[in-house]
Amino acid sequence: MWNVVTLDGCFEGKQPWDLSFHELVWGPELEVFIIEQLHEADILIFGKNTYVGMADYWPKAAKTDPEVADIMNNISKVVCSSSLKEAGWNNTTIVHDAKKELQLLKERGDKPMFVFGSAKLSESILNAGLIDEIRLCVAPILLGKGRRLFSSKIDSRKLKLVESNPFANGGIILRYIIQNDK
What we know:
The protein has a four-stranded mixed β-sheet with strand order 1-7-10-9, with no helix packed on it. Strands 5-4-3-6 form a four-stranded parallel β-sheet. It is of the alpha/beta class. Helix content is 29%, strand content 27%. It has five helices and ten strands. The longest helix has 13 residues, at 28-40.
């Protein structure tokens, strides 16, 4: 699971797709990390709302961010949605039963699958035991109001910190492995 969050745990601001705080951490260090992470991945996983936003943004981003756009547009993608009928973004598959289908993909794959954004989906599959690692970039800001990544519906999980990488701009990458015992 991968996301950029504020110090107070928000992954978006007061309005949907208010990601303005990403500018605080964006720079060469985060770009290198993201590219390395994308090269590790076999599949990107999205909930419907995140998928719609990403599918709108990345095909147009080839001029502004060609390296990341190339990877994002060509990697295999899965969108988990019970209502989405069509997925127009290159290399995208729709699954309706996220827990079942992602478990099958996880068993068959030999490279990491990354969930991007998608708080509701992340919550569901985290509670189902399908997430092994949480990667966060913490932005140095307190929003006060916004949509939190982890809600009160998350089951308790012990985490083991395996990496902390501070950036010159005040952001920090945190990588946690989910422990088997709750």
